[in-house]
């Protein structure tokens, strides 16, 4: 089991302690409310750039070499990522090195180093990272960004959420410093310590390291466009042996009252190895190697997304088969037996979160940052709710979600004009 505690420093910094005394490891993570949703078009990618720059030298480490070698020398792992709504830095290590880990996390979050030479090195690294989403013609083909823009944004769907060569080239040390000072303020940061640790020791470290951090949060997160009256499509031609597509239906945001039903529906369609899409599209027809369905959730919007990739000649048939499963789900719903089976599967997966300090840090840290709940919605509370879901409520959600006016279809690859025309007709 675990114990949960939350503290708020006088400067507004929130700290969540998840004590799991039966394990050896500890995860210390920082969640910061900054991402592409806060960025202007001309500065797209600055939050991701900033995340990279956090590792480029701190008060105690002259450069990234010293920082990363210190993590390695104590057997730890470090990771960082940027999503549209928030960024995270996560350190995982043996609990005997917790003080060292806390100081490293503090150095990274409080560093704010923007030396010109380091900026140019990181700019080149980011440009290399972007190349994995560019085809041989040089066109951007990042299907996740394209799908996000199609569903939720006005304007161009070709602009990568992490920026392109033009926006990255234009970003300066002053831009990064201004962005850092605007978002890396106590009220906009949540620390989460999860695993086996002495709370008194960690509390003292947090106070010493982060207690003097100052600043007020004033940024506004622009709302996403949610209005839609018909299916929307985005096709991007790319020289490839395959065609990839995402079929997304607008659904519920993070922690919506029906979010558990959304998890069940995603699992029914393409979560497990016996899910409907995997059995019919892969096992029965052999059209794809992999097909998945998963929920995507933000603080205010969400969707159920299906992703797969197939040969050009199988594109129409694959789309048709996927749409057949959607129509069958809408028409017939699910049985009590299937609901019972999926409830048990999702229940078990939710319970397993409590075995992982990393999963627990993400659960409570992101919830606190995005929603600021009066009381946390714990994994065990959610797990108990799963078995209370009624078939009628599932069918109500099916009829609410899987309708043409909430359907978004993004395609990247070597399709023909005729297959494009036919697949668009399938969406209606």
Summarize the structure in words.
- The strands form 2 sheets. A 6-stranded mixed sheet has the order 1-2-6-3-5-4, with helices on both faces. The protein has a 5-stranded mixed sheet with strand order 7-11-8-10-9, sandwiched between helices.
- The protein is α+β, with helices and mostly antiparallel strands.
- The model has no long low-confidence stretch (mean pLDDT 94).
- Helices cover 43% and strands 19% of the residues.
- The N and C termini lie far apart (49 Å).
- The chain is built from 16 helices and 11 strands.
- It has helices spanning 46-53, 64-73, 98-111, 116-130, 143-152, 165-170, 173-183, 199-210, 259-270, 276-284, 315-332, 336-352, 357-371, 379-386, 391-401, 417-426; strands at residues 3-8, 14-19, 25-32, 77-82, 87-94, 189-195, 232-237, 242-250, 291-297, 302-311, 407-413.
- The chain folds into 2 domains: 3-210, Cytochrome Bc1 Complex, Chain A, domain 1 (2-Layer Sandwich), CATH 3.30.830; 232-426, 2-Layer Sandwich (Cytochrome Bc1 Complex, Chain A, domain 1).
- α9 crosses α12, α11 packs parallel to α16 (417-426) and α12 packs antiparallel against α14.
